[in-house]
Amino acid sequence: MSKTEEIQAKLLLAIQSVPPNLDDILFLSRELAKQDPHNQRFYIDAKTLIHLGRDSIKDHSTALLELVKNSYDADATKVDIEIFSETKDLIRVADNGFGMTSDELKNSWLRIGYSGKRVSTKSKLGRRKTGEKGIGRISTDRLGSILELRTKSKNDKLTGLKVNWDDFDVEGKSLSDIRVEIFEPSEISLPVKDGKPSATGTEIIIERQRQPWSKLNIENLQQELSALTPPFEDVQDFKISLVNDIYPLPSEEINSNYLNAAEIKIEAYYPGTGSEIIYTYWDKYNGKEVIEKIEWSNLLTRTGMDTSNLIDNQIRSGSMTIKLYFFLREGASVKDLDFNLTKLREFLDNNAGIKIYRDRIVVKPYGFPSSQFGYDWLGLADRKAKDPAGISRSKNYSVTPNQLVGAVFIARDSNIELADSAAREGLVESEAFYDLKSLVMGTVNMLESYRTKLIPKINEAKRKSRTKESRTERIIKALNSVEKDLYSINLEIQNNTDIKTHLKERVQKNINQLSGTTDKVEKTITELLNWNRTLSGLATIGISSAVFGHETEGSITQLKGSVMAAKLALSRKDPNVEEALNEIAKAVTSSTKVAAWGAYALTRVQREKRSKKDVNIGKIINSVVNELEPAYRAASITLNMNLKDVYTYTYQMDIETLLINLMTNAYTAATNKSGKRVINIQLIEEDLKESKRLVENGYALIISDSGPGVSKEYEHRLFEPLFSTKVNPSMGSKSIGTGLGLTVVNSIVQDLNGKITFDKDPELKGARFKIWLPKERKTII
Length: 781
Prior knowledge:
Strand content: 15-25%
Largest sheet: 7 strands, mixed
Structural class: alpha+beta
InterPro entries: HATPase_C_sf, HATPase_dom, His_kinase_dom, Sig_transdc_His_kin-like_C
Keywords: ATP-binding, Kinase, Nucleotide-binding, Transferase, Two-component regulatory system
Number of domains: 5
Distance between the termini: 93 Å
Number of strands: 27
Number of helices: 20
Protein name: histidine kinase
Shape: elongated
EC number: 2.7.13.3
GO biological process, one term: phosphorelay signal transduction system
């Protein structure tokens, strides 16, 4: 009997056995095929899967993103990710998609290279499916050696499989020789859907992790997950949660309102045919859209790009839309917005760069700050470094990459020439890709050109801004300058091979400390600038915005000077690291002083006072007067109180602001007249009769003093901003008042729908101010 006949006989027995021995059938079929002298077959070595998975995927965050993309393709609306490296060895990814049947698990998931996404390109929710190679599932091998998958579809029972990827890491072992266990799980844990745990979905559990996750890994993953779908599009039907035991991060969704801080927005649209690109511009100076059309060849010529390889003036990459948002990263950018400069800068630090989105899913690594090569894939930083001209030199002006947040929108079906690279990160750098890159670069140039046209309006806006700019805003700008200098110092230190490692570490530690402090200072000052009630409170307690700024600006000047001195010490031919350390230490001291001022101010305007609640007005007045009484007693001023218990629903800070401002004015008035010094404080319940039938319940705060009263010539200007009659004779009659007190009082009274009047007190002969406010009850719904 020949070798061929022997194998045929064994194969027949394997087929006829009950049940058929599938492993023997596969093995004998393969051996039989080898006996054919004219026709042979490929045989797949088990290690092939290792090359496709573990070896070909750049890092574990890329591998995890592959799993999230699979969830997106499965029409999931929520994906839960858990990464535990320190408390336990576990990675879990669960979604509420449509799941898989037992047949799909065996005949599709286990079939390497097969993807139903090539046949059915759209999901039931209308999503264009992202994976078509059929190897994304092997990415689990990059994360860990043990895989357990559980899945539940609408029309089948709960099913699962278990894989030990290390079984494939054996030389000379055939892929078909390795068994994958199919089992029936007792349970599955899936994200909620429509308010309750989903009835369908997939849960993946990975153990024996290939490498530990670091704090930086988690931060990068968080960035990549938050940018997986474009923040521009406000995608609501796909949410991701991330829980970990390495570096817990706040689960803060991107606020699309940050885009409102952009100075210029530009959108480029190419329909896929012809040679014309349509540009739409919007800027905060004009407040209207501007539309411009340009030919592809003219765009390339205008931006200095090579046009020698143009083919029929067509863009080979297909139709696309490009959106760019340009930011100044200045305090003026967040004026009248519901977030501060610190939050805007955090948004820009995490999202700066131009990303590529295909079918609403991001294509790494383009535009990711955490990616060494992908962040500035257009080379904007190098271009800026070679010619750092400002906007005033319009011909050479260029943006820096951290000022741009942008996206390129493409699709598989309309951008066929833009193919994925084999490593599942990036696109194949074909002619179509170079056309895409040229179009994006051309759009950046168009934005720069448009901005230079706005120079007259930009200069006019800056001129107006300078005249209105507060001392607090100047402080924030100074802090931004300090941050840039610190970054420059850090680069200088780290790149200098002549400086010893321990000195580098000391400088790095000091810079980190100072950078953290200045960030806190900026956040505090920005909050003070944005809170209307806080500013009123600051003016009221004598730390007006002017005084606060004066005290702070001196320390900021010292801070900035020390940082500059440190920078100079390190820029010499022989860097003086010790001198730089001393200067940075001085800067830390100055910044700490600034932070202390901010902390003091904030304690005087505590958050609970800025919330509306039921309060006893008489109790608030009594507390404030008792707090101020020692200062008045030292000036020989007698305080008399006659207070009723009046209950209402209001802001405690408003009442304190009204009271202290009026008492401060009364203090000044009482000390400006000889004789007995007296201030009376009265609180009464008083109804206001608006008409014969309408009576409004309310209360009145009356404060009178023994001073000279309000002069007739000043009565009409009393509530004007910055008008003050307070003078200091010892300073040559120089004004010591800010002129804000009664302006703040009048503003709050109007805000509370009250009334303010003043006259001459019949008993004390000085000024008498009366504030009437309506009583308010808490509305219960």
